[in-house]
Structure formats: C-alpha cells, structure tokens
Automatic annotation (TrEMBL):
<feature type="region of interest" description="Disordered">
    <location>
        <begin position="150"/>
        <end position="178"/>
    </location>
</feature>
<feature type="compositionally biased region" description="Basic and acidic residues">
    <location>
        <begin position="337"/>
        <end position="354"/>
    </location>
</feature>
<feature type="domain" description="HTH myb-type">
    <location>
        <begin position="437"/>
        <end position="496"/>
    </location>
</feature>
<feature type="region of interest" description="Disordered">
    <location>
        <begin position="387"/>
        <end position="416"/>
    </location>
</feature>
<dbReference type="GO" id="GO:0005634">
    <property type="term" value="C:nucleus"/>
</dbReference>
<dbReference type="InterPro" id="IPR009057">
    <property type="entry name" value="Homeodomain-like_sf"/>
</dbReference>
<feature type="domain" description="Myb-like">
    <location>
        <begin position="437"/>
        <end position="492"/>
    </location>
</feature>
<dbReference type="InterPro" id="IPR001005">
    <property type="entry name" value="SANT/Myb"/>
</dbReference>
<feature type="region of interest" description="Disordered">
    <location>
        <begin position="334"/>
        <end position="355"/>
    </location>
</feature>
<protein>
    <submittedName>
        <fullName>TRF-LIKE 8</fullName>
    </submittedName>
</protein>
<dbReference type="InterPro" id="IPR017930">
    <property type="entry name" value="Myb_dom"/>
</dbReference>
<feature type="compositionally biased region" description="Low complexity">
    <location>
        <begin position="156"/>
        <end position="174"/>
    </location>
</feature>
<feature type="region of interest" description="Disordered">
    <location>
        <begin position="279"/>
        <end position="303"/>
    </location>
</feature>
<keyword id="KW-0539">Nucleus</keyword>
<feature type="compositionally biased region" description="Basic and acidic residues">
    <location>
        <begin position="279"/>
        <end position="294"/>
    </location>
</feature>
<feature type="region of interest" description="Disordered">
    <location>
        <begin position="206"/>
        <end position="228"/>
    </location>
</feature>
<dbReference type="Pfam" id="PF00249">
    <property type="entry name" value="Myb_DNA-binding"/>
</dbReference>
DNA sequence: TTTAGGG
DNA sequence: CCCTAAA
C-alpha cells in the first residue's frame, strides 16, 4: 500500500476518532470518565470492520484456523477479560507508584508468566488471526494512549461501520477488518511499548494481589533478591544501545546494531530487514516467506539486511511468519494485557497447562464482549507515568526460545517494530527503551517445587535429571532437567552440604536469601541427599562416586 | 540428546 | 539462567 504522507494522516485521524466517540459514548463510565474517550477508541478500533483493503493475511488465517483455533482463542479472550476485571480495582493505587515501589518478586512472577504464554501458544499454534488482533490492539493503543500524531490514519476511515464482536464464528468480516487495521498500523515501537508499560502495572497488580497471597507459608518469605534488582538494571542498560539506534531513521543502523549487539536478547529483538518485509508483503509470497524464515533460521548469523521502510506498512501484517514471529507478537499482546487471561496467569503454570478448560471455554473470541469496558479501561490506565517509570517496570513481552532446545537460529521475531521511519523519535526513544530489552526469564523456585526436586533426587539420585524432570515435573514445562540440576547445585551450596568456594560476600548473601526462603527441613533433606547422592560425582577427596541406581 | 561444569 | 564440551 502506498504510504501516506504525514500531513494526510494527521488530518484523517482526528476525524475518525471523533466519529468513533460519538458512536460509542456509552461504554461504561463507572470508571475514570476521563479515560472513556480513549477507551472508546480502543474498543472501536478493535471492532473495526473490514474495509476495502482486505488483507490477504487475515483471510488466509481465517480460512485455516477453523474451529479448533476458535476455541483456543476463546479461552484467552475470556480469561483476559475476566482477569482484567479483577485487576482494575487495584490499578489506581498503583499508577502513581514509582518503579522502586514495585515488588520485584512479583515482577519476576509476571515475567515468568510471559513465558508460559509462549508455551500455550506453542501448544495451540495460533496464527495469523491473532496476530492481526494483536496488531490491532497495538494500533488502538497507539492512538489512544500516545500523544503523538498517529499515522496512517486515513486507513481507518471506515470506522462507522461497526461490526460487533468479530468472533471466530463470525464471518470473515471481523478478521478481515482486523487484519486491515493491522496492516495500517504496523507495530511501531511506540505503541508497543506504550502497551507494554501499561500492562506491566496491571499484571503486577494482579500478581501481588493474588499470587502472593495464595502462596504457601514457606513462600511468603521469598523475597526479591538482589539478583532481581540487578536484572532489572541490566534491562535498562541493554536497552540503551538499541534505543538510540532505533530512534535513528534507517533500518540499516538497526540491523548493524543488531549484528554488533553483544546480547543475544538484542539479537532476537532485531527488526526485520526491509527486504524481508517487502517480500513478505507480497500476498502471494506467503510460502516464500515461510521458506525464507526457515532459511534465516538456518543461517545463524547471516541475517538479511535491508533498508527501505516504505513497504513496511504492507508487510507488517503479512510479514509475520507462522511461528516465531507470531509467538512473539502473541506474547507481546499478552504482556500488554490486552487479551491476556490474567486469572490464568496468576495460576501456577502447572495448573494452567493441565487444565484444558482454559483453551476451550466455549466462548467466542470477541473483542466487544461485555467485558470489554474493563479491558479498555485497564489499558487506559496505563498511565503515562508508566512509561516514565524506568527500568524496574520493564518486562519482556517476548518469550525466550522454547525451553529445552534453545534454537540457535535467529527467531524472526524482530518483526516487532519494523517501522523505523517514524518521525517522533522522542516518543519512540523513550518508549522503545522498555520494549527492547529482555529480562532473563527466571522463574522463582517455590518451596513445593524444591521439595519435589528433593524427592526426585532421593528417588533417582543425582545425574538423572531428565528422569526426575519427567516424573516430578512433568506438569511444569518451564523446569528443564538442567534447571533441576542447577537448582540442586544451588541447594547444595546453600545448605552448606558442599564446600563453598565462593567466599564473596555477595554470594553468601544470595545464599542466605535462599536459605531464608526455604524451610529448614528442606535443607536438612538437602544435606542428607547430598551425602547420599553426591552431586559432583567426585567427592571432595577427588574420588569418583558411583551413582546409585 | 543428555550430563557436567563453568560463566 | 546460559553456554559449551563431552559422552
């Protein structure tokens, strides 16, 4: 699609929104009336019916997905609404809170949850339709939240024709409309980030209210460690290099930066090259792009380099490749709090994974459901302060590569923010800062988990981590055998069952934290097992110890 | 692929 | 938690 010049866009947008507001004035104002406008806008955008530009992407997806996918979607949407609702109550109080006030532990939990979403995605293989939705959301967000002039506004003209809840069962209309929107939108780092920031709050809130309270006594004592803090700081730092680059107008720089980037995380975030996008933008080339993605995945370090950005608009929606990119987007959306089933999130992963009901709730994925007001509002709440909250509020919206087999290949996820040409560098800089960094996806070990681990070791001894994983942690996908082993290593150190070679204060402190958070009984067992199943198979004396079993 | 070990 | 070497 031809790119609109700025002027054009600017003039069109306001109109559109003005009309939108009129149409939906009723949306539920029980909450912060001032926010209503934006809320309405968002809502409307989400419901945006198709326009003349039917994105091929959307159509394809719709056709392919069929019923199975629908049910999956339903689960999410429903869950999200539900969660949001619960969430909203607490938002106010947190909005003004500074980043430092956030409970890091909670944040940690939230971050972990992002990963889980990824898992879910993997299981269900969501595709295009969701992407579109997500993109939509992003657009909506951009428009309603950010105070800079929206672009491509002209493409949103058809807002007058409302199509309620483009559910999965609905005609291709809804989906098409969404994809249309997304095409116009093209994730800009700003919008994305804006969302991101906002949702972090929401989630944090949710987590703190629910998760923590429901924890076991032993876990209550688990406090954020200095590690957490450090990580957060790191995030900020990591983001910096990218920020400046992203703000630059040419994608080239970004690409270079990505190349030069030392952090793997940054690499993953890398934006799609122009050429790549262009190719993908061609409706016919869907297969081509798939192939391409595979190729790029294969070529570890050889990433496509491109430059032009004009095609990005078209490419955006289409460019999303099946898996990786989508998963990322999906997660993004999730982290943005848009469609995320918060109630699911707050649950232990194991529960979620095992409970099929959440993916087949029987509800339709409808953006305009009764729950919507909540959604919108929640979004709304993402106070600007959030974007100012700094590093600690940051959270990754991207999940790490699937556990277990970390793919060396570069995920095509860099599609995230392909639009570089943006003029509003300021906004972008500020916000992109947050989106571009990733936090280590760490999941706190809970006491029950530790106990399970210990049981497993008692049964199998050390060295059979896969077995332990399978038997004791079959329901928790996020714990890999390696994780188990690492945890055991840590436990040994913490329990003093192992000679501690690190005499650094820092390390000791950390260990102390661990000890504090776990019941002493646990450590007793650890010590027992340590003598029974020596971990380093070489005893302190240097003698090899045969594994029992 | 899994384990072990180092970072 | 991540990565790599070795088995």
């Amino acid at each position: 699609m031809p790119r609109m010049d700025k002027l054009d866009r600017e003039t069109h947008f306001p109109k559109k929104f003005a009309s939108m507001k009129c149409q939906r004035v009723k949306v539920d104002d029980s909450f912060a009336p001032a926010l209503e406008d934006e809320a309405v806008e968002v809502q409307h955008l989400l419901a945006e019916p198709k326009t003349d530009h039917v994105s091929v992407d959307g159509v394809l997806c719709l056709g392919k997905e069929k019923s199975s996918k629908c049910s999956e979607t339903n689960g999410f949407s429903f869950g999200f609404n539900d969660g949001m609702r619960r969430n909203i109550g607490g938002l106010h109080s947190h909005i003004t809170q500074g980043p430092d006030d956030l409970d890091l532990g909670v944040l940690d939990g939230f971050l972990d949850e992002v990963d889980e979403v990824d898992d879910i995605h993997a299981a269900n293989d969501f595709s295009g339709a969701y992407e579109d939705f997500i993109l939509d959301v992003e657009l909506a967000q951009k428009v309603s939240y950010l105070d800079y002039t929206p672009r491509d506004g002209s493409r949103l003209r058809n807002s007058s024709s409302e199509s309620q809840s483009p559910g999965c069962s609905g005609s291709s209309n809804g989906a098409a409309g969404m994809s249309e929107l997304s095409t116009a939108t093209i994730p800009e780092s700003e919008s994305k980030n804006g969302w991101h920031n906002k949702t972090v709050k929401c989630k944090l809130r949710r987590s703190s209210g629910d998760k923590w309270n429901s924890q076991e006594p032993g876990e209550d004592s688990v406090c954020p460690t200095s590690d957490d803090i450090e990580d957060l700081d790191e995030l900020d730092d990591d983001a910096k290099p990218l920020i400046s680059l992203v703000s630059g107008k040419n994608a080239k720089k970004v690409v270079q930066a990505a190349k030069a980037g030392t952090s793997a995380r940054q690499k993953r975030l890398r934006k799609p090259t122009k050429r790549y996008i262009e190719e993908l933008s061609d409706p016919k080339s869907k297969q081509v792009m798939e192939r391409k993605s595979d190729l790029s995945a294969t070529l570890k370090d050889k990433r496509p380099k491109i430059r032009s950005h004009d095609e990005l608009h078209c490419g955006g929606a289409l460019a999303r490749t099946p898996k990786e990119s989508f998963s990322e987007n999906f997660n993004q959306a999730i982290s943005k709090g848009n469609d995320e089933p918060l109630h699911l999130r707050s649950k232990p992963v194991s529960e979620r994974r095992t409970n099929p009901s959440f993916i087949s709730k029987g509800r339709c994925w409808s953006v305009t459901s009764q729950n919507e007001p909540c959604q919108v509002r929640a979004v709304k709440f993402a106070p600007k302060e959030l974007s100012l909250t700094g590093p600690s509020a940051q959270a990754p919206f991207e999940s790490r590569p699937r556990r277990g087999r970390p793919k060396k290949s570069l995920p095509l996820s860099f599609l995230e923010s392909e639009d570089d040409e943006s003029e509003d560098d300021c906004v972008k800089k500020r916000i992109s800062k947050k989106s571009n960094d990733r936090r280590k996806h760490q999941r706190m070990w809970t006491t029950p988990e530790v106990m399970k681990l210990i049981d497993g070791i008692a049964q199998y001894g050390t060295g059979r981590w896969t077995d332990i994983k399978k038997l004791m942690f079959s329901s928790t996908a996020y714990r890999t055998p390696i994780d188990l082993r690492d945890k055991w290593r840590n436990l040994l150190r913490a329990s003093g069952a192992q000679k501690r070679k690190s005499n650094k204060k820092e390390d000791k402190e950390k260990l102390k934290d661990v000890v504090r958070s776990l019941p002493s009984s646990v450590f007793r067992r650890v010590r027992e097992l340590a003598s029974l199943h020596p971990y380093p198979r070489f005893s302190p004396g240097g003698r090899y110890i045969r594994r029992k079993n």
